[in-house]
Amino acid sequence: MGNSFNTTEEIRNFWLLAFEHLPDNPTPNAWLMACRNIIRLNEDALSCLNDDESSKLLSVLINHVKRAYTLKKPQLLGNALESVMHLLKRRRYQVGFLAAESAEYLYLDELLSTRSLASVRLITRIRAILPTFLDLLRSQADENEIASLVMTDEGDEDD
To answer: pLDDT tens-digit profile of 65-118?
Structure first.
């Protein structure tokens, strides 16, 4: 779905629908995959959001990460984490997005840097990107790590 939108209006309409359907959705996996894919595959996806909307999207995604982690839902957790990871591209447009002192940053840093995710049976592809996600979060990723994400994206085993 991420490459199927060609105009700013189509992308805007997607985000309007996502903000309507994603926050309190008890079965959000399809919406999480759609968010992940549009952010990952469409360079204009995040430029269509203003600062408040990108912060709102981050909050919604973090809530899904927390819920999926608590319920031990590996597919949901993987899609929510990947969506947040790709949302880090928002830092291009918004200085201070997911800043190191924010509650969301601290939660993700702790979740990704401890062994707590071992209790959730994440698929291999998601487990493989977690160290790189942590380095991206901390703004410490090197060229090899970024290249490994490109290679890892080839197999979307959860779709």
So the answer is: 999 999 999 999 999 999 999 999 999 889 899 999 999 999 999 999 887 888
Sign of the dihedral through C-alpha 23, 15, 99, 88: positive
List the domain boundaries for the chain: 8-152
Do the Cβ atoms of 36 and 84 come closer than 8 Å? Answer: no
DSSP the chain: -TTS--SHHHHHHHHHHHHHHSTT-SS-HHHHHHHHHHHHH-TTTTTTS-HHHHHHHHHHHHHHHHHHHHHT-HHHHHHHHHHHHHHGGGGGTSTTTT-TTSHHHHHHHHHHHSGGGGGS---HHHHHHHHHHHHHHTT---HHHHHHHHHHTT--TT-
Q: For residue range 64-76, list pLDDT tens digits in order.
A: 999 999 999 999 9
CA 123 and chain centroid, separation: 16
In whole angstroms, what is the distance from residue 48 CA to residue 101 CA? Answer: 26
Which residue from 129, 132, 116, 117 is spatially nearest to 157, judged by alpha carbons? 129
